[in-house]
Prior knowledge:
This protein is α+β, with helices and mostly antiparallel strands. The protein contains 5 helices and 12 strands. The longest helix is centred in the middle third of the chain and has 17 residues, at 108-124. The radius of gyration is 17 Å and the shape is globular.
Amino acid sequence: MTALLDLVLESHGTLERWRKFNAIDVNLSMHGEHWKRKGWDGVFKNVQLKVQTKEQRTRYTHFTEEGVQSIYEPDRVRLETIDGKPIEERVHPRKAFEGHTLQTTWDRLHLAYFTGYALWNYLNTPFMFVTESAKAEEIDPVSDQGTVRRRLKVTFPEKVGTHCPEQIFHVDEKRAHRPVGLYHARGRWRFSRALHGRVQEHSRDYDANQTARVQEKPRRNSKY
C-alpha cells in the first residue's frame, strides 16, 4: 500500500476495524433528473438496502414496490419476493445497456443493476481499494485554489462492477476522510457521474452483529 492510501484508510477508521464487519445497512433517499429520465422518479425515497463488505452483493428491500427485493451480483441481477420466490433475473446484466443513450429509459433490472453496483462502490470506498485485486498508486498532486491535493489512482480488475476501471481520487490531507473521486465514465456510463456527486458524505455506526448502519446525506448545492 502507498502512504496516501494508508492515510485515507486510517481516516476512515482503519482497515483492521473494517475487516471485522460483514455488511452495511443503509437508509437513504435519492432523487433528481437522472431518475426522471430513466422512468423511475420517486422510487428511492427512504429505501433500505444491505451492502456486503466481503463480496460484491447488494440487496434492496421493497424495490420499486412493496414485497419485492432486488439482489445485485456482478454477473447476475434478480428480483424476488421478500420470502425468496423468483420473479425475474438477468445474466450478464451490463450487456443489457448496449446501445443506450442518456435518454434511454430503464426496466427494473437495469435499475437494480446500476443502483446495486453503484452503491456497493460508494459504501465500500476506500476499503475496496485493497480488495478484489485493485491496484492503488499515488500520482502527482494538483493545486486547487491554493489547496494542494494529493492524488490516488486506483485501477480495478474487470470482475469488479464499477463506473470506470481507472479512477483518480483527490485527497486533502486535512479532510482525508472525504476523498473526491474523479473519472471519465465511458460511453453509456457518463450519467453515473451525477449519482456519484450526490453520495458525498455519510456517517457509520457499528453494532455487535458485524453490521455498519449508514445514514446518507446528499451533497449541498449539487447541480444534479
